[in-house]
Write a structure and sequence with these properties.
The chain is α+β, with helices and mostly antiparallel strands. 32% of the residues lie in helices and 20% in strands. The protein contains six helices and eight strands; from the N terminus they run βαβαβαββαααβββ. Helix 3 runs antiparallel to helix 4. It starts with a strand and ends in a 10-residue tail after the last strand.
C-alpha cells in the first residue's frame, strides 16, 4: 500500500500507460466520457510546465477493494502527499494485469483555481502515507528500517522479488551475523558468490556494486539500510 510516485511532463505518456487496454475507470474529479476527452482535459488543466503526478497503490496479494473503497484510499493517500482531492484534477483506474489489486492515479499538479501544487513525494512522506493507510485499513505494517545499527537490517519484500536480489540479501545477512567483517575487504572474503567494488553511480555518488559473475546489483537496491 506504499504510494509509488512518478512525475510526468507529458500527459500523453501518462494516459497511454494508465488507460491501456483492460483499465477500469474508478473515478476522480474529472468527468470522463472517452479517454481522449480526459486526456485533453488533463493536458489543459495541468499546463505545459506544471506537470503531472502518477501515483500507484497496491493492496496485498489476495485482497481486493470495491470501487468506493479505492476512491477513499486514493483521497486519503493524496491528502498525505499534500494534495487536496476535492480541489485538484485527478482520475484513478484499476489494472487487473498483476497478481494484486492495484490502481493508478493521474494528478494535475495545479488545482482548479490554477495554483501550482507541490506534492510531498519524499521517501519519508511516502512511508508516512503507507503507515497511515495500513492503520486505517487494518493491514499489517511492513517492517521499515528505523535507522538503528543492526546486523540484519530489514529488506522490504518488494525489493527482493528477483532471485539475485534475494540471494544477495541472504549472503549479506549471513556474512554480518556470522562474521561481523570490519571492512569491505573482509566482507568480500566471507561472501559466498557476490563480491563488491566501489563504483560511481548515475547520481555521481560512490556506491557499492555487487556481482556474482552473472548478475550485477547496486547494494542500495535492497533498501535504505543498504545505501549507498
Amino acid at each position: 500500500m506504499r504510494p509509488h510516485c512518478k512525475r510526468h511532463s507529458d500527459p500523453d505518456v501518462l494516459m497511454n500507460y494508465t488507460m491501456r487496454e483492460g483499465a477500469e475507470l474508478l473515478g476522480g474529479t474529472l468527468p470522463v466520457l472517452v479517454p481522449q476527452l480526459l486526456q485533453e482535459r488533463l493536458k489543459a488543466l495541468a499546463g505545459p510546465k506544471d506537470g503531472l503526478l502518477h501515483v500507484i497503490l497496491s493492496l496485498p496479494k489476495g485482497l481486493q477493494a470495491s470501487k468506493e473503497l479505492w476512491l477513499k484510499i486514493v483521497a486519503r493517500a493524496m491528502k498525505g502527499l499534500g494534495i487536496d482531492s476535492e480541489t485538484t484534477p485527478w482520475f484513478s483506474v484499476r489494472h487487473s494485469d498483476k497478481d494484486c489489486d492495484h490502481v493508478h492515479t493521474g494528478i494535475a499538479l495545479r488545482d482548479f483555481a490554477g495554483r501550482r501544487l507541490e506534492a510531498r513525494t519524499s521517501e519519508a512522506a511516502c512511508t508516512a502515507v503507507h503507515r497511515d493507510l495500513c492503520t486505517h485499513l487494518c493491514l499489517p505494517e511492513p517492517p521499515y528500517d528505523d535507522g538503528r545499527l543492526t546486523l540484519s537490517p530489514q529488506v522490504p519484500a518488494r525489493r527482493i522479488r528477483s532471485e539475485p536480489r534475494n540471494r544477495l540479501k541472504d549472503e549479506l545477512t549471513e556474512a554480518f551475523v556470522k562474521h561481523q567483517p570490519e571492512n569491505m575487504e573482509a566482507l568480500n572474503a566471507v561472501m559466498e558468490t557476490f563480491k563488491a567494488k566501489a563504483v560511481v553511480n548515475g547520481h555521481g555518488v560512490s556506491s557499492w556494486q555487487w556481482s556474482d559473475g552473472t548478475s550485477t546489483l547496486w547494494g542500495g537496491r535492497l533498501g535504505k539500510a543498504w545505501q549507498p
